[in-house]
Amino acid sequence: MDDSSLFTSPPQLWQAPTKAVLSGEGPRQLPGPWRLMLLGDGSPTRHLRLLTGEPVAVDLIAMEPEQNSPADAPSEVNELQTPLLRRQVWLTCGGITLAWAESWWNQAEADLHLQDRNLPIWRSLTQGRSELFREVDGLALVDADWLRKAFGLQGPFWSRHYRFFRGGKALTVIREVFSPQLETWLGPTLRQELQRSS
């Protein structure tokens, strides 16, 4: 029996071709505001703050050692040096849960960069104005009962994963899943239609 308090990563129902994600094209059906949110290299916590006008609260679910890279992890996790830690959080604004995120870290890097475990990762990594590079590697639609319950809405849900680099070295791999509640600010997307066409 697994006594981990981490959620199992939600299964992917549809995935964009890697080439389209890396070039920033993404699916043609994706409206401009969502394209910026999902494929842009800006900070999602900053985007959520700007969209809602509310501060972003980071609610830590768990941060636990990861013995091996799990089968459901992005392939880029294999680039990180072991031993690994896996961290999961909820992101809320004004009491509304707008995103779930998980990240994989080398244990030493996590100890160095995540001293305040409730700070957004972007703020932790850019303290002291250090230069970082973010590369979005994957875009998908996912679904899980626990996400539907947390968001209070039906899936599928937009998900992306990306890496942070410093000095050409990958520091972490991050996967985020966004609530459809963001359609309030960003407009509707064709989530169900895209899932059905795959």
- Helix run count: 8
Number of spatially distinct domains: 1
The CATH superfamily is known as Chorismate lyase-like
- How would you sum up the major sheet? 7 strands, antiparallel
So what's the overall shape?
Answer: globular
Stated plainly, the CATH topology is called Chorismate lyase
What does this protein look like?
The protein is 27% helix and 33% strand. The radius of gyration is 16 Å and the shape is globular. Residues 124-129 have low confidence and may be disordered. The chain has helices spanning 18-22, 32-39, 44-52, 107-113, 121-126, 145-151, 183-186, 191-197; strands at 12-15, 56-66, 84-93, 96-106, 133-142, 157-166, 169-178. The protein has 198 residues and is of the alpha+beta class. It has 8 helices and 7 strands. Strands 1-5-6-7-4-3-2 form a 7-stranded antiparallel β-sheet, with helices on both faces. A hairpin with a 2-residue loop joins strand 3 and strand 4 (96-106). The chain has one domain (12-68, 76-197): 3-Layer(aba) Sandwich (Chorismate lyase).
Characteristics of this structure?
8 helices; 33% strand; alpha+beta; 198 residues; Chorismate lyase
Question: How does the SSE layout of this entry go?
Answer:
Layout: E1 12-15, H1 18-22, H2 32-39, H3 44-52, E2 56-66, E3 84-93, E4 96-106, H4 107-113, H5 121-126, E5 133-142, H6 145-151, E6 157-166, E7 169-178, H7 183-186, H8 191-197
Antiparallel strand pairs: 1-5, 2-3, 3-4, 4-7, 5-6, 6-7
